[in-house]
Amino acid sequence: MAHHPRKTAAAAAALVALTGLGTAPSAAAPTPTAHARFVPGACPKTAEPVPELAKARCGFLEVPENRARPGGRTIRLATAVIPATSARPAAEPVVFMAGGPGGETFDDIPFLVSSGVNADHDLIVMAQRGNRYDQPNLACPEFDRFTARYVGLGHDSARAKSQMLDAFKQCRDRLTADGTDLGAYNTVENAADFADLRTALGIAEWNVYGYSYGTNLALTLLRTHPEGIRAVAIDSVTPPQSVVLPWGWPSAQEGIGAILDACAAQPACKSRYPDLRKTLDEQVRRLEEKPLTLTARPPKGGDPVKVVLDGGAVLNVLVANTIKPVDVPAAIDELARGNPERFARARAVDSVPAVGMTAHGLTESVACAEWTPGVSESDVLDAGRKAFPGWPDTVLAQTPQLPFQFDVCRTWNVPDRAAQQRVPAVSSVPVLLLSGTFDQKTGAEFAKDAARTLSRSTSVKIPGITHWVVPQSPCAAKVLASFLARPAAPDTGCAAGLTPAPFTITPK
């Protein structure tokens, strides 16, 4: 559920001028609701250049902050429509739903364009409520600054817990003092925003594409506002009915296990790194008992920083994909041989946070209202023990990438929305489910949970790919394009016979 792959400066070819926003509304299309409107305006001035915005049509969707309170505060959601590169695009655009929740949306545009998502369809991107470039913006720079310090603290230390809770309390107090209704930042309201966007733009029918948390949102939209949806593509799937806090453990087990199994299936990797699973187990136990404190230079440069490498840090580095899967066996072997450099540098990534990039206010409002209620600390620990038998309880007590979540939610204090949200989407709309076998954040098996109630679904697994499949796999991009062209009969043939790339083999 955490964020997209590491961004790269992928420049796209110049885009043709935008000529429209899809088809005119048909008689069957609902009219725009009285409480939502689209206001044209300038495109956001992004932190990193997004060349595709030069020819986009931008503006804000204005909607109520809380639809249950008519006459309350209005919020503004930054929106861009990127034209199709085809001279004769399809009538139905593609609307994109980013991950997170709270992940910055506009810096996903180069990845979408380079993957061909707008080749034959206009591409609509809207920052989910509370995101960067929205009004209000639910960034928590207090937490971003904490993450820079967290790399030098034990993953479950009392000091880390105290500093994290203090950061979230400061953020919450600041946001609520400005009048923000944190309870209104949830997936059902998010879905209603997208439904309002379609009608406000006068679009009769569109396609939906989301990844990670965006798949949860896309399925919620399909359940609560199915009108006007031609097809849904979901990538790195998180079904609403399955996203409960302990869910992070089977995902980590599946993704890490798939990497270790793939090494064992490659003769060179198996020969060079025998018993890799046993080696990883030993290193997690060893480092949790006796953590290493060292200095490491962040991968993108800068001064060396203090890094604490314990068992929980090793796990979270793997789940975060900050070590490329092809390098994971080598990194585990090096760790066992007294060289923690790869893990230390990967841990140091967070020492240079992009302050204000992520809307942690949306992240925590969703996590605390929808993922955490109804489960306990012991449920998380039990799931961890099942996933990684023999690992220390101090590692297994914290859901990967969501440490101290129960304590954070007591601080964040938003209403319980689990019953409203943990509901499967039941639909006959064509749905494409894309999964990467090496995904440690949203395990590929969870696509099966979603597919059970989607009668016209097509599921595709791409071997050797981690989180957010399409930008990493030309085959997945081809499958997505085929699905958007023919939702009822996509061509998935390129996935047959794919195998993971060869692993890095270091000298002995």
From TrEMBL:
Peptidase S33 tripeptidyl aminopeptidase-like C-terminal domain mapped to chain residues: 407-493
Domain AB hydrolase-1: from-to ranges: 93-238
Keyword Cell membrane: no
Gene Ontology biological process terms in this record: proteolysis
Protein name, UniProt field: Transporter
Gene3D superfamilies with a match to the protein in the record: alpha/beta hydrolase
Organism: Streptomyces katrae
Any one GO MF annotation of this record: aminopeptidase activity
Domain of life: Bacteria
PANTHER family: PROLINE IMINOPEPTIDASE
Record's GO cellular component terms: cytoplasm
UniProtKB keywords: Signal
Signal peptide limits: 1-28
